[in-house]
What does this fold into?
Amino acid sequence: MKRREFLRTTAAALAPYAMPAAQNTPNIVVILADDVGYGDLSCYGATKVKTPNLDRIAKEGIRFTDAHSSSATCTPTRYSLITGEYAWRKKGTGILPGDAAMIVEPGRTTIASVLKSAGYKTAAVGKWHLGLGAGKIDWNGEIKPGPREIGFDYSFLIPATGDRVPCVYVENGRVVGLDPKDPIAVSYGAPIGNEPTGKDHPEMLKVKLSRGHDNTIVNGVSRIGYMTGGKSARWVDEDMADTITRKAVGFIDRNKSGPFFLYFATHDVHVPRVPHRRFQNTTSCSIRCDALVQLDHCVGEVLKALDRNRIAGDTLILFTSDNGPVLNDGYDDGAEEKQNGHTPAGLLRGGKYSLFEGGTRMPFVLRWPKRVKPGVSDALLCQVDLLSSFAALTGQKLTAAAAPDSFNVLPALLGESKTGRDHLVEHANGLALRIGTWKYIPSLRLAPKKGGDQPAQLYDLSQDIGEKTNLAAAHPARVREMQERLQALQANPRSRP
Ligand code: NG6
Ligand code: CA
It folds into this structure.
């Protein structure tokens, strides 16, 4: 008996409620990139930038063409992926400041807790952005609750985003490299400390500002929020991708006998885009593309770790992104001017913050050599479905209250069915509804400076993937039906069948 099987058998014997058959407990690696759009990878048609490692996953696995993040911004998408609940059902799940309390209740069923009860070792590495602690955080002590309280055995986190303080890593609830004589303080209100800010010292900045981000300067980049202290613990943006990748690979190496679940949330290609020097100026389509190449390299390091440990065949690896692309997101780093024909959302309309498909339709490639046949799938899927699907895969039962919007789409994920969900609620600053390839966006009342009132929109994505021709006037019955369905989905606290 191989060591891996032996360990599984032993784990199964010790945990009578978790009796997974070996072929149903692959290692699972979910790589969630940041602000990477549908057209950003060469396997999705990009030509100005090459992403060979991601292309390898696509070639050896399934490339999904209609898979979605649950929202067009980061925090709500991550909340949904972890909890299996649409974030718009719950107040306080919008983009969080860096000192927010954790928005996932400790003890709740999460993607990590489900896999943990199936005998997995679990880890979250990289961008968190779901809040930490229960109120006012003391960054100098144990930061709790955090990932451990929702099912992750190990964590190494960027607490919020690269553009928000505190600019430090938190490993298993402690700031890494902190000198107790130089304690950290953080403020998202009044300025604190006497360090230079981007507002007063734009000449000190290595990345120019366009909107916001003009508080404390850390490593030559000014951020949202003020921080003092923690000098020895502050990250260096140029090293961030290597640092978190090393932690992800370290977790794989330590747990190669499996099964393990790694949630690896990269920071690329979110702002501030400050890739390592070896990636800067390596593409013809701006620093954003340089960051994409860095991201692809990090994915390659994960693939190498699986190969080196001879566990690639037994590992389900999935790559996707948290929301659509944006060029200028508050820093003027030249991305807007220097695309050179690169189209981050491909043929889709909209991007980050948008209810059009570019907001939530994501690159989504999945490989599991021992079980999944390579191919392309147009099944409608959402990241909110991963929880139920992985529960089904590993034989875990969910209570009726758990994961209220997470569908078991395992057959579609594994390429055994072409059908995913029948419908999906898409979320940005409002809600939209997909039923099959039909897309409905309700009428919106907007201030004149935001474009004024918008009529209801209806698109047939099978003919019009770019959402150019509004068919609402031609199909009043369908509009009414979709409007009622969307209202019902909002009124009912759960949509899981
Ligand atoms: C916005 C920030 C943007 C980005 C975003 C969150 C400004 C002007 N804009 O408020 O830079 O941080 O929040 O991005 O500050 S997300 O991908 O984490 O949702
Ligand atoms: Ca994002």
Q: What stands out?
A: Confidence is low (pLDDT under 50) at residues 1-22. The two ends are 39 Å apart (CA to CA). Residues 71 and 427 are 5 Å apart (CA to CA).
